[in-house]
Structures are given as structure tokens and as C-alpha cells.
Design a protein that fits this description.
This protein is 73% helix and 0% strand. The protein is mostly helical. Helix 2 packs antiparallel against helix 3 and helix 5 crosses helix 6. The two termini are 21 Å apart.
């Protein structure tokens, strides 16, 4: 569960910052304990998702949503991946829902944007199903 008491205290501090909507400072802490606490990757992704949801600039939204998806590459613990997947699905959904009508392309999408939309939609359905399975 935890690597050390220090990471638990830092995770709690990051959670308090998250609760007070200070996502930037929470991100700083979560990056330092990323590999030390199972919940850190998911909470980091959630902070970036919240920042993306708050901004009105489409390019900034896209940047934050892409950062959420990129977090997966850093995760080495399977327990952390499971917690991260529900946030990843939300970010992918946000990206499709908000940016598809505007024709904004992301690095995570292939040249054939229609195919990418279908692939991401299927992935979201799978991730949501996994998340619902864990909630039972």
C-alpha cells in the first residue's frame, strides 16, 4: 500500500490541496511521491483533468487532457494503473466531447481522426466497465 510514512503524509497534504482546489501545488507534491504511493498517479491525473476542465482555451484543455493520458507511461505499479484508468477514461471522453466538434487534433490521435475517435470510444467503454467492476 505505502512505501513509507513520509509518502502517506505527503499524499494527505496533496489531498488537502486538491480539496482546496490548489491543483498546481498538489501536482508538485504528487510528482515527488509518484512511485511511492499507489494513489499518487490517479490523483495527479485527476488534478490535471480538473485544470483542463477549468480552462477555457481549447489548446490548454487539450494540453492537460494529453498530460493525463501520458501519465500511464510513468506508472510501474499495477495497483496504480487500476486506479488511474477511470481518470484516464474521463480525460479521453473530455477530449472527444469538447474538441471533436472544433476539429482540433491531438498528438494522441492518428492521422485518421475518425478511426481514432472510434478506438477511443471503445477504450472508454472498456475502462468504464473495468471501473464499474471494481466498484462492486
Amino acid at each position: 500500500m505505502f512505501c513509507c510514512p513520509y509518502s502517506h503524509a505527503e499524499q494527505q497534504k496533496a489531498q488537502n490541496l486538491f480539496n482546496s482546489k490548489d491543483y498546481v501545488q498538489a501536482i508538485d507534491i504528487l510528482n515527488t511521491i509518484f512511485d511511492k504511493h499507489n494513489d499518487a498517479p490517479a490523483k495527479l491525473a485527476e488534478c490535471k483533468l480538473k485544470l483542463g476542465q477549468q480552462t477555457s482555451a481549447k489548446s490548454e484543455k487539450l494540453k492537460f487532457f494529453n498530460e493525463v493520458v501520458e501519465i500511464r507511461k510513468r506508472i510501474s505499479n499495477s495497483s496504480s494503473v487500476a486506479k488511474f484508468e477511470s481518470i484516464e477514461a474521463k480525460a479521453l471522453f473530455e477530449e472527444i466531447e469538447r474538441l471533436w466538434p472544433f476539429g482540433i487534433y491531438s498528438k494522441t490521435f492518428s492521422q485518421n481522426f475518425q478511426s481514432a475517435k472510434i478506438v477511443l470510444s471503445v477504450k472508454i467503454i472498456i475502462l468504464i466497465d473495468k471501473y464499474n467492476h471494481f466498484e462492486r
